[in-house]
Amino acid sequence: LRVHDSRDDPRALESALGELLGPSRLLFFDEFHVHDSGDARLLTRLLAFVFAQRLTVLVTSNYAPDSLLPNPIWHHTFEPGIAMIKDHLDVFHLDGPTDYRTQSPHHTTGFASGKWLTVLPPGSYPSADENVTLTVRGRQFPALAVRNGQLWISFAQLCDSTLSTIEYLYWADAFDEWVVTDVPLFDDASREAQQRFINVIDILTDTDTPTTFIATHTVDEFLATETTRPDTFRMASRLQLLRS
């Protein structure tokens, strides 16, 4: 919003960053990744700004610097950013054979208290009379129902429409619990829907929102069809937290 308000200023991004960061001396990125060429250009300018300000930068990532923006068509757009990361940061490679999310015995709170269901109790699926319209910044989006702080929304409504992390973050804050219905096999979804679903899982786990997923197949069958597209490994790990 700060950048948009000053869009006629060629240094709008730098001005917005200065206002946002204020007197901060440490900037921490968790799960740093780059998959979009537009994001790559913005992040390059952000990195140039924070390094020029001599901020301490701490980053975690599932990608080595040279593997960021892995799409070979667009990788060159982030090469200046990669060069800054390698010039200004020390890189430590951490690896291990165990995904500890798969071994967690606790399913009592937050996202881990959610479920992956293949059968719903009779009468629990929302009727057409419960259908609602959600509004975010003047844009309207259909959903199946809202019940006492619980959002019911189909996979198609959530991932086949032109939604972004803005809407997902807004709903994660607005609703205490989510139910996502009619989840297809991963490879049956379009590439755009796949990426949106990955983004949704990121946000729901980061906000620790209890979520129930409803499909005709098990979570293991869903994950068995995951592609090698970027970040599916993180989605798979997080879905292992759910009870089946």
Please describe what this structure looks like:
The structure is a single chain. With 244 residues, this protein is α/β, with parallel strands linked by helices. It has 2 domains: 2-88, no CATH class; 102-239, Rossmann fold. The chain contains 9 helices and 9 strands. It has helices at residues 2-5, 12-21, 37-52, 79-88, 155-159, 165-174, 191-206, 219-224, 232-239; strands at 26-29, 56-59, 115-117, 132-136, 139-143, 145-147, 150-154, 177-181, 211-214. α6 runs parallel beside α7 (191-206). The longest helix has 16 residues, at 37-52. The radius of gyration is 20 Å and the shape is globular.
Give the tally of structural domains.
Answer: 2
Q: Outline the low-pLDDT stretches.
A: none
What is the CATH class name of the largest domain?
Answer: Alpha Beta
Order of helices and strands: HHEHEHEEEEEHHEHEHH
Largest sheet: 5 strands, mixed
- What structural category characterises the helix and strand content? alpha/beta
* C-alpha termini separation: 40 Å
What's the helix count? Answer: 9
Rg estimate, integer Å: 20 Å
Kindly state the number of beta strands: 9
Strands in their spatial order, largest beta sheet: 3-9-8-7-6
The CATH architecture of the largest domain is: 3-Layer(aba) Sandwich
CATH topology of the largest domain: Rossmann fold
Helical content (DSSP H or I, runs of 4+): 25-40%
Quick overview of this protein structure:
The protein is α/β, with parallel strands linked by helices.
Tell me the layout of helices and strands.
Blueprint: H1 2-5, H2 12-21, E1 26-29, H3 37-52, E2 56-59, H4 79-88, E3 115-117, E4 132-136, E5 139-143, E6 145-147, E7 150-154, H5 155-159, H6 165-174, E8 177-181, H7 191-206, E9 211-214, H8 219-224, H9 232-239
Helix pairs in contact: 3-4, 6-7, 7-9
